[in-house]
């Protein structure tokens, strides 16, 4: 699964030095109960244009009611924290996989220098070629084990859903799919990086490297948010991304541009990041759920003739028409390390769209609790970086003091060095 991967990232306390201006703006508006004021311009910010085509008639005429991303994401593991993250010896059949303490104890009992090299974890292999002993302070392996240490010491467990799906998802879109293992020479001799090791390091690079992002929507931190008599959630942030923005982003990003983006696929306290691969819209009559069509005019309803339609109190004052939409979305999903068959999942998100007299999209309402929390993507041309990237970049000199110094600086934040990640992907990809 994914947590981005099944990975979760806490966004409640953003680092304002790293967060993009779009996300900072969204966070600042997140508490208002005025849906129209809160969501204005969010889809435009996400797509990156001053104005969007918002007429359902024009979107339909342009064939933007379905589409697919040009890049199809490769499946990868979310490297859960409760198994040690990238310090997990995934290829070792004896490695414990159900408890952080048992996993860490196994590595303590069978340290890297008394273990078969090919069965070491991605972090241990990375440390060996960059000049570290995996069990020493400052190593990437130590960083990965420390992620779950406090939680385990405090509660005797580590949440099973936390990982780096927020790294796998963009990595699967912006890094070429690894297809063959790569041998790397380092101070400890030749180290074999498997396809899964390479995917892991690329995912961690995207999970923890610094780069700017664009967001739409909010993260809901409530497992059971308050609802009104119609079942509509009342906390503003748990309304999540506006259905109108969701509809327009799909039309413009996927259908018009062929560009993927990433969603938190489930509303609630956990975060499961997944890259969107394709979609199609199916319209339905909000007064007769069984009347459906691929053309919105066939099932549209005039608001004034609907009586007290569900969520009536939350509709835009300009609303003249209302139409129901099912967005059937395919997204890339994660696979355990060692499984290389691409995985795909399909979800259907159902909502109403509020339309002006000329069929412009004004807003929308979710029809049930199953919908994305938020959407995000890297800003165009922005890629991860770390403090150590400027120190060493000659892969032929791996293991020298300059590489060790660079790795130590980047390991503090759990970021593999860009030069080594790039080399591994270049050697492993077609």
Descriptive overview:
The structure is a single chain. The longest helix is centred in the middle third of the chain and has 16 residues, at about 140-155. It contains twelve helices and twelve strands. Strands 1, 4, 5, 6, 7, 8, 9, 10, 11 and 12 form a ten-stranded antiparallel beta sheet that branches. Strands 2-3 form a two-stranded antiparallel ribbon. The chain has helices at about 20-30, 35-40, 40-45, 55-60, 100-110, 120-130, 140-155, 165-175, 195-210, 245-255, 400-410, 420-430, and strands spanning about 65-70, 180-185, 190-195, 215, 260-265, 275-285, 290-295, 300, 320-335, 345-355, 360-365, 375-380. Mean pLDDT is about 85; it is low at about 1-20. Strand 6 and strand 7 form a beta hairpin. With about 425 residues, the chain is an alpha+beta fold. The radius of gyration is 23 Å and the shape is elongated. About 30% of the residues lie in helices and about 20% in strands. Helix 8 (about 165-175) packs across helix 9 and helix 9 packs antiparallel against helix 12. The chain has a domain at about 20-75 and about 210-380.
List the helices and strands and how they pair.
Layout: H1 21-29, H2 35-39, H3 42-47, H4 56-61, E1 66-68, H5 100-109, H6 122-130, H7 140-155, H8 165-174, E2 182-186, E3 189-193, H9 195-208, E4 213-217, H10 243-256, E5 262-264, E6 273-285, E7 288-293, E8 301-302, E9 321-333, E10 343-355, E11 361-366, E12 374-378, H11 401-411, H12 418-428
Antiparallel strand pairs: 1-6, 2-3, 4-12, 5-6, 5-12, 6-7, 6-9, 8-9, 9-10, 10-11
């Amino acid at each position: 699964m994914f947590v981005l991967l099944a990975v979760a990232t806490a966004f409640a306390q953003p680092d304002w030095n790293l967060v993009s201006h779009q996300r900072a703006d969204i966070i600042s508006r997140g508490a208002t109960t005025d849906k129209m004021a809160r969501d204005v311009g969010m889809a435009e910010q996400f797509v990156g244009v001053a104005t969007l085509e918002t007429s359902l008639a024009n979107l339909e005429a342009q064939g933007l009611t379905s589409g697919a991303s040009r890049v199809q994401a490769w499946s990868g593991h979310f490297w859960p924290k409760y198994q040690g993250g990238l310090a997990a010896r995934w290829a070792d059949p004896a490695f414990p996989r159900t408890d952080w303490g048992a996993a860490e104890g196994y590595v303590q009992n069978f340290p890297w220098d008394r273990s078969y090299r090919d069965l070491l974890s991605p972090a241990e292999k990375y440390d060996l070629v960059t000049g570290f002993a995996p069990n020493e302070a400052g190593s990437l392996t130590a960083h990965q084990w420390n992620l779950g240490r406090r939680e385990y010491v405090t509660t005797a467990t580590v949440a099973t859903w936390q990982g780096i799906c927020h790294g796998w998802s963009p990595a699967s879109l912006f890094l070429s799919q690894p297809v063959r293992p790569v041998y790397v020479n380092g101070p400890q001799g030749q180290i074999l990086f498997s396809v899964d090791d390479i995917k892991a390091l690329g995912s961690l690079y995207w999970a923890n490297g610094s780069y700017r992002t664009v967001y739409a929507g909010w993260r809901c931190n409530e497992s059971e948010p308050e609802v009104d008599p119609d079942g509509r959630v009342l906390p503003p942030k748990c309304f999540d991304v506006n259905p109108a923005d969701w509809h327009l982003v799909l039309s413009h990003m996927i259908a018009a541009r062929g560009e993927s983006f990433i969603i938190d696929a489930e509303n609630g306290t956990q975060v499961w990041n997944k890259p969107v691969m394709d979609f199609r819209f199916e319209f339905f009559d909000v007064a007769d759920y069984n009347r459906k069509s691929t053309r919105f005019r066939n099932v549209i309803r005039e608001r004034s003739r609907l009586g007290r339609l569900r969520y009536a109190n939350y509709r835009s004052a300009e609303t003249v028409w209302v139409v129901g939409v099912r967005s059937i979305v395919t997204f890339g999903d994660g696979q355990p390390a060692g499984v290389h068959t691409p995985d795909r999942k399909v979800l259907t998100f159902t909502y109403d769209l509020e339309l002006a007299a000329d069929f412009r999209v004004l807003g929308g309402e979710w029809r049930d609790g199953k919908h994305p929390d938020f959407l995000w993507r890297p800003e165009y041309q922005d890629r991860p970086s770390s403090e150590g990237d400027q120190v060493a970049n000659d892969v032929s000199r791996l293991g020298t003091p300059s590489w060790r110094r660079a790795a130590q600086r980047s390991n503090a934040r759990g970021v593999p060095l860009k030069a080594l990640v790039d080399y591994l992907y270049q050697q492993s990809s077609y």
